[in-house]
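Hi C.,

You asked whether I'd gotten around to modeling the 166-residue construct. I have! Everything is below, sequence then structure, no commentary in between.
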Amino acid sequence: MNASYAEILGRKIIDKEKNVKLGFVQNILVDKNTGKILGLTTEQNKSINALDIINWSPNIIVKSKKQISDKKNNGSFLNNMRVETVSNKYLGKVNDFSFDCNFLIINGILCFKTFLFIQYNQRIIPYSAIISIEEKKIIVKDDFEFVKNALKSRLKLKENISIEMA
């Protein structure tokens, strides 16, 4: 099952044993090195390990209240992070991202630029194009590399043929 940040945000967190509400999802923690979902944070600044979540939909169901801790995981919050290419071209800020609930891995990010509350240049960037997730920004492959690799795979070009973009 796939889910997105926007879908998960604000969902109820429910204790399976006692069937009581424990809080609401405030944010999703992501491992900067692997792109794995580490857990969730609640509005009370508590965290839940993603491995302790039994069900992601329609509510977040955890095994028991014992799985909620005061400790913060060493993850990052991707929402509103800058997205730049390797050549420092600004692509926008992360607005949403999707992930696989079973394997707890990011599938891709949605970013766009804004000007006076107007959103433009919306892009969906697959996880395979992400080079690194840093403290305040995400570095992705250059646009040229996207086009070049797409052309190579579509046209099945040999390595000795070069592609020039005007």
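If it helps when you're writing up: DSSP finds two helices and 14 strands in the chain.

Thanks,
B.
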